[in-house]
Amino acid sequence: MEKIKSTLLEVLYGVIPIVILISILQFTIARLPWDYYFDFLAGTVFLVVGLTMFLIGLEIGFIPFGESFGSSLVKSGKMRIILLFGFIIGVVVTLPEPDVQVLAAQADAYLDTVSKPALILGIALGVGLFVALALFRIFKGIEVKYILTAGYGIVFILLIFCPPEFASLAFDAGGVTTGSLTVPFIMSMGVGVASVTSKGSSSANNFGILAIASLGPVITLLAMGVLNR
Q: Transmembrane region positions (predicted)?
């Protein structure tokens, strides 16, 4: 019960300032139809309840499972299997990500060259491939700066040949992959892997997996843009 109360307060602290600001704008500048405003207030109630339940679910189940899953994969001792599962998890967790769905729907409405399913699949494959790469980095003790330097080198090369609208979309895709579903699970899985594989302190390897994972969709969508020229 105490956990529910503390989580609810955290959500309210984040939502109430937004409600106050919107209310001030509604009564002073915006003056939208009142139906819109009352729908906003009703939606806020559902948001608070849903987000509270979501965060509790993450903390008591999703995150602990991710850490345990990552460490148990390492204990199997088979790197190929670990990287394969890392790829699959990256894809599966990204496919239902709400932010990815919204971005793909918006892009599908304005771009005629690619469909919503293709965009979602491209983003998910990019995340999966680079989650596997991030796990490989942890295993081999490679510094994250080398991975990111090489990755952004590929990005800059692809930008030369990619249409402008795809370039903008690709970088937006890199941002939406760090959403409410992907971040907790992928990061906790990386922590679990690092806790078993790292020599000495694992703190250096605990982080960087999200930076690498979010680079994947940028590269895959830029590549799609080049192929769709």
A: 12-34, 40-60, 81-98, 118-139, 146-167, 173-195, 207-227
Torsion angle, alpha carbons of 191, 153, 101, 83, to 10:
-40
Structural domain boundaries enclosing 54: 1-60
Give the span between the Cα atoms of 44 and 5, in whole angstroms: 18
Question: Do 131 and 89 contact (CB within 8 A), yes or no?
Answer: yes
Q: Indicate if the pLDDT at residue 73 is higher than 80.
A: no
CA distances from 23 to 30, 40, 68 (A): 9, 10, 44
What are the distances in angstroms from CA 41 to CA 8, 78, 150, 224? 17, 52, 47, 41
**Residue 143 and residue 194 in one domain:** yes
Instruction: Name every residue whose Cβ is closer than 8 Å to that of residue 66 and which is 6 or more positions away in sequence.
Output: 184, 185, 186, 187, 188, 189, 191, 192
DSSP annotation of 143 reads -
Q: What are phi and psi of 89, to 5 degrees?
A: -65, -40
Residues 132 and 52 in one domain: no
Residue 216 scores a pLDDT above 90 = yes
Give dist(CA 86, CA 171) in Å, integer: 23
On whether the CB atoms of residues 185 and 62 are closer than 8 A, the answer is yes
pLDDT per residue over 141-180, tens digit each?
Answer: 888 889 999 999 999 999 999 988 888 899 999 888 777 7
Check whether 91 has a pLDDT greater than 80. Answer: yes
**Same-domain status, 28 and 83:** no
